[in-house]
Amino acid sequence: MAFLIRWIVSSVMVFLLAYLLPGVEVKDFIDALVVALVLSLLNVFVRPVLIFLTIPATIVTLGLFLFVINAAMIWLTHLIVDGFTVANFWWALLFSVLLSILNSLVMGDNQNPNRRRNSSSNQ
Questions:
Q1: Of 5, 34, 1, 4, whose CA–CA distance to 106 is shortest?
Q2: What is the CB neighbour count within 10 angstroms for residue 100?
């Protein structure tokens, strides 16, 4: 159930960003659902390989190269999904940064369920 909610929320964010950014286009909400799903799969299977292969570049740039990898994931999604168009790399980079920020704001830190919610409760 949690995956379904995250998928729908991510799709809404993709659709919203495509509406706001002139260099990014999603035909309809169904395509936004497909974009969110493909992007999730690429982030699970392809992104870790790219991160491993580009460790030297990531170290030299103090982690900034990860933005390039995120933009590459958006670009790959653009190549895979017919109803998703990104004008160029810079729009992919901006889209990936804004999508990451929105994901952090909307989804919060759900990665660690054991994290303490209230620091005053352990006093």
A1: 5
A2: 13
Residues 6+ apart with CB under 8 A from 92: 24, 71, 72, 74, 75, 78, 86
Beta-strand pair 24-26/84-86 = antiparallel
- The amino acid occupying position 59 is I
Residue 108 pLDDT: 83
Q: Residue 85 CB: number of other CB atoms within 10 A?
A: 15
Distances from the Cα of 48 to the Cα of 9, 10, 71, 84, angstroms? 23, 20, 14, 23
Distance CA 103, CA 32 (A): 15
**pLDDT by residue (tens digit) across 40-59?**
999 999 999 999 999 999 99
**pLDDT 10s digits, 81-121:** 999 999 999 999 999 999 999 999 998 866 555 555 555 55
The domain locations on the chain are: 29-106
